[in-house]
Amino acid sequence: MIDMLDALRLIEERRGDAVVLSTMMGNLGWREVSRNQDLDLPIGGAMGKASSVALGLCLARPDRRVIVLDGDGSLLMNLGTLVTVGEQAPENLYHVVLDNGMYAVTGGQPLPNSGGYSFVGLAEAAGYASAFEFDDLEEFATGLDAVMSAPGPVMVCIKTDPAIINTPSWPYPLGTIRFEPVAIKEVARALNQ
User: What's this model's pTM, rounded to 2 decimal places?
Assistant: First the structure.
């Protein structure tokens, strides 16, 4: 298992000028590591929809790499997005799933059939060009350049340590999240420069 913040720090180091859309667990960790908030688009209150928003951005801006930080429970809420992404085949989409096996943001409920499916397998069957899975930080660190140079759509499943928000097991600061209206304006401004 990989500490979520360690994985996100590695992504931040290699993001370049990519737009990063985050949701659920990704929101909570990404704001701690991002160094380019003007290109960060947190998607709150839309469990399962970040990948759909990312697809729209990829199609509108094929010149710009887009990284979506999704939760495993969030993606389960909208598995149909995988097939739509596969059909549209945006080469600039990097879909990162932070897989901790639970709905950590809503109280730590276990995911249905957790461990009985593979996000990599689902993405490959849906038509993603490349798919990777990591459960070791060193392997992720050494494999990330290959991930980021692969043409998309790319699925990256990162097996992360479980931690439940607002409990003693929660190791990350909660802080504040930029709300969507502000973030949308800032990202639009940054993309139009």
Answer: 0.86
What count of Cα atoms within 13 Å lies in the side-chain half-sphere of residue 11? 33
| Measured CA distances, 189 to 17, 40, 118, 140, 192 (Å) | 14, 12, 37, 32, 5
**Is 20's pLDDT higher than 80?**
yes
The residues with which 75 forms a beta bridge, in sequence order, are none
**pLDDT tens per residue, range 106-154:** 666 767 677 778 999 999 999 999 999 999 999 999 999 999 999 999 9
Q: Where are the beta strands (DSSP E) in 124-179?
A: 130-134, 154-159
- Choose the CATH number for 4-191 among 3.30.1330.10, 3.40.50.2000, 3.90.226.10, 3.40.50.970: 3.40.50.970
